Write the structure tokens for this entry.
Amino acid sequence: GMMKELLGLRELEAQLEKELGVNQVIVVPGNSDNDEWVKREMGRACISELKAIIKPKDVVAVMGGTTLAAVAEMMKPDAKTREVVFVPARGGLGEQVENQANTISAELASRAGAQYRLLHVPDQISEEAYSSLVLEPSVKDILKLIQSACTVIHGIGDAKMMATRRDSQHSFIDKLNREEAVAEAFGFYFNRSGEPIHKQRTIGLQLDDLGEDKYVISVAGGASKAEAISAYMKYQPSDVLITDEAAAETLLQSR
Ligand code: G3H
């Protein structure tokens, strides 16, 4: 029955909090590998968490991906969200436009009746172009705003899936295989122990920026992401993890 199901989810949440060292875990029913609506349920949970913690004038930085796109879909305006500013946490990572952090930030803002700012950085930029771009006054301004974000919302992906989806070069995919990358988040790749082994060059928040002063909400589900979630949380447990039943069960079984 429904009650038993709910108790089961609460139990999974408690076990995951303990196992991952995450302060708050929210588990929604289902497996987002198989059903799109499960991503939207995680999205709904993420929006209600966001609304519970934001204050007027807050800057909220968001990453890209299909899960974050589902989060944006679930936004509804209220008095609080109208005063927030949404920004992308990092520049382009080689995603299709609907999965880019810029797009998701703009979509969230439009649905929330809030403000947003874009970060214009081309994907796969050279070291040289990168160094001069960060000196541009308009880029500097938005980067300052991004750094000031008090809340960060991001997805977690399977390393190989993300590298392939972003059309990475063969030599790069080989390197990820050799170094046994399992997780991706923010354009950073992590091994099973949660050690960052590679970062995609782009501007915006770096891993070191996700310290104490930022409230980090991770949203990732599907049995296929269990290992990635576990690895990323070893790097640094987020303040909140929103996941699904299939990821939760797979993760707990493999420990
Ligand atoms: O950066 C993207 C995330 O790591 C995962 O993307 O939500 O489409 O699985 P996803």
User: Anything to note?
Assistant: DSSP finds ten helices and eleven strands in the chain. The mean pLDDT is 95. The first strand starts at residue 24 and ends at 28.
